[in-house]
Amino acid sequence: QVQLVESGGGLVQAGASLRLSCAASGRATNYNAMGWFRQAPGEEREFVASISWGGGSTSYATAVKGRFTISRDNAKNTVYLQMNSLKPEDTAVYYCATGPFAYANTESADYSFWGQGTQVTVSS
Fold it and tell me: Do the beta carbons of residue 70 and residue 79 sit within 8 Å?
């Protein structure tokens, strides 16, 4: 089993920055890719960003490309999502996830383990 715990969410104004963290524990996850997804009220969960196990490959949703950066520190079993130039439409619960693959997967159905989520609210 893998446990994922997100942190770093909050309420900010448009244009501000936040950094989300996701700490993994349990079965070793250093060889697994990690992903960030988000879900706004009344909307389906959507892909935000993912990173390969080694950190050398990343994928981003079009809506966040150029504003968000995903990174990982395998020594700390932690993945980060740096979010800059936040917009009201970025408001959502953000989830980190991992699965039994090494590449930067964008498909939520492929991910096996999920965190409880952290709320990000961006006011205009």
Answer: yes
Token pair in block for residue 24: 């993994």
Does the pLDDT value for residue 74 go beyond 80? yes
44 close to 100: Cβ distance less than 8 angstroms: no
Give me the pLDDT at residue 40, please.
97
- Distance from C-alpha of 116 to C-alpha of 17, rounded to nearest angstrom: 22
1, 38, 103, 81 alpha-carbon torsion, rounded to 10°: -100
- Cα–Cα distance, 72 to 55 (Å, whole number): 6
Examine the pLDDT at 100 and tell me if it is beyond 70.
Answer: yes
Task: Write out pLDDT tens, residues 14-61.
Answer: 999 999 999 998 875 557 999 999 999 999 999 999 999 999 999 999
Query: Could you give the strand order of the β-sheet that contains 78-83, starting from the edge strand earlier in sequence?
Result: 2-7, 18-26, 78-83, 68-73
What's the chain's length in residues?
124
